[in-house]
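Hi R.,

Here's the chain you asked about this morning:
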Amino acid sequence: MKIIIIGAGPAGLISLRTLEEQSKPGELEIVCYERRSQLGGQWVYMKDQEETYDKAGAPLRTTMYRELKMNTATVLHPPHPDVEFSPDASLYPKYNEMYQYLKDLADKFDLEKYIKYNCMVSNIVFDKNTSKFNMEVHDMLSDKVVKEDADYVFLCNGQYGIPRKPYIDMSSFSGEWIHYYDFRDSTQMRGKSVLVVGSSWDAMDIASLLSKPDRAKQIHLSWHSAPPIWSYGAKLTSVHNDIESVSEKTVKFKDGGSIEVDAIIFCHGFKHIHPVCKELELDFESSPLSRFVFPLYKHLVHPKCTRLFYMARGNISEMYMARSQAQFAYGVMKGKIRLPNEAEMLEDIEKSGTYWTKELMKVPEMTTEELKKYNPILELEMEIGNSYHELCSDVAPMHPLIRQVHTEVFIGILDDCFNYRDYKVDYRSNPENPAEQLPYLIPAN
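And here is the predicted structure, written out as tokens:
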């Protein structure tokens, strides 16, 4: 049985190790194609803001910026149970600590033996007659294109590909404007009046970095789809709803306000398209908060092609989810899991999608106290992860520590999004098992 994994980032590496764990020696032929010359995916930091290419001509640009840290206390529950973070790693790992974790994972299990670097996969087509995928692989070092086939494909090339263009005309703006894809360091905005557009985690993190001493002179926030649910305190100069127009350095808002700014940073996400497989497109755009992915059964399997697995899409904890998804995918490949037919899967997607769309649409209207008691974003994540276990006992259920840590982090964000990473760890007895000590996050002061 031949498996092709596309991408050697977190999802690709965790899929490699999980398939290796689950299968018997010699049972699977696994090849992982990575377009860059190194593993790590989006956790590879490139200082140069211009488009940079490696020796094979593969684009090296990622969304990584120098001051980025994980927005969850990942150290408390590493993505793979057999690999721990370095003892001196931050509670909220920095980009280089996360990259080192992935490198340690690959080194411990010799995963690079499966990886072919500088190889770009394109034109994936599923042949219903042979039940195999046919594709082209461009080896960019030799500049040769070879035909390849596979029984199953794991699509692990991430969801941070093509930045969304601004939704307003920027031609008359005389200041600097960028998508956060081009944000590399908060010193870029030193001494400037900056408008951050967005209400997601990325907007929150960038606004937080710009609030540091000797950074932005002023920080304004505007939201397009929904207002921020996090507490921004007094560190923002002003907060507005949607932009109505820009001219020179003046920005006018639909709430009637207007400001003068030197720069605008758009934090409104990426287009989730997969040009390697055009006939099986996904729809993130109609999904509230980009959390429910259409049309994937259990956020993983396309009803029209059940041999293609879309790994780690739209979740707040993609790396944790990747292991459960790879276990589930292996169960499908081995016939331990019988998937519903196309119509039944579409019905399940519609039913689940309707319910979670309704729940997720509540988030912008919920109070901080309500969100502390019930967080639809986290509940969707737990629901997806546990559904794999319910369908196949070989898949481990979502560890309760994931819910605990994510809940406490989320509460910290709601209370003070600019300082929540200053929390420290304390240990208390597990109420269900007093002999077990569980980590808790508490304010540093």
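One quick note: The mean pLDDT is 85.

Cheers,
M.
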